[in-house]
Write a structure and sequence with these properties.
Blueprint (H helix, E strand, L loop, with lengths): L2 H11 L6 E3 L6 E7 L4 H14 L6 E5 L2 E8 L2 E8 L4 E6 L3 H8 L4 E4 L1 E2 L2 E2 L4 H12 L4 E3 L7 E4 L8 E8 L4 E8 L2 E8 L3 E3 L2
Helix pairs in contact: 1-2
Length: 200
């Protein structure tokens, strides 16, 4: 892999939604590096720089901070965010030897490798495939601040002003069903998350 490709990877690390820095996907095993809280991107950047400086491209093949796009419903508005799937952890595909192990673990902000006894433990192919599939999902994950049974007030639409308990929540559609009393009869109505707020 050329130095130019790695440098382009460094630039991506500063963008809002970094995913993987591809160096060589055909070699090595995946290992998990634990960092101090909030230091993931700094450690990643330092590691990419060290790969170039020490010419470790043939042994450290890929650096990944798994992230996902989420949508939070806050104050009846959708807020898009990029969140780390595993805060405090970086995934590294590499050929582990004592030299590489040393150069990685002395990077500022690094806590330790996930290990069994004294040696770093590789992630199984099955576990890593699950992570990579999650990273590749383009549909934003919607984080819901509502619970079944919770009473909400309808603030928009034809049923504005009504209140009722939540019967069903469908996060992927951004909708819920609430049971409200219309003309003395309890009726389930489907609503967008933005149409309701928690009963105060």
């Amino acid at each position: 892999m050329s130095e130019e490709t790695i440098n382009s990877g460094e630039e991506k690390a500063n963008q809002p939604n970094p995913q993987t820095e591809e160096i060589n996907r055909d070699k090595g095993q995946w290992f998990i590096l634990q960092t101090y809280s909030g230091h993931e991107k700094k450690v990643k950047q330092s590691l990419l720089q060290k790969i170039i400086k020490l010419e470790l491209q043939d042994r450290i093949h890929e650096v990944l901070i798994p992230e996902e796009e989420t949508i939070e419903i806050k104050d009846n508005k959708r807020v898009e965010k990029i969140k780390k799937m595993f805060p405090g952890y970086i995934f590294i595909r590499m050929d582990l030897d004592d030299e590489v192990w040393y150069h990685v673990k002395v990077i500022p902000g690094v806590s330790k490798f996930i290990s069994s006894k004294t040696r770093p433990t590789p992630v199984t192919d099955k576990e890593m495939l699950r992570v990579l599939k999650q990273v590749g999902v383009k549909t934003p994950k919607i984080e819901v601040d509502f619970e079944i049974g919770e009473v909400v007030k309808i603030i928009a639409g034809p049923f504005r002003g009504y209140s009722g308990p939540i019967q069903e929540i469908t996060p992927e559609r951004g909708k819920l069903k609430s049971l409200i009393a219309i003309f003395g009869r309890e009726t389930p109505v489907e609503l967008d998350f933005e149409q309701v707020e928690k009963q105060r």
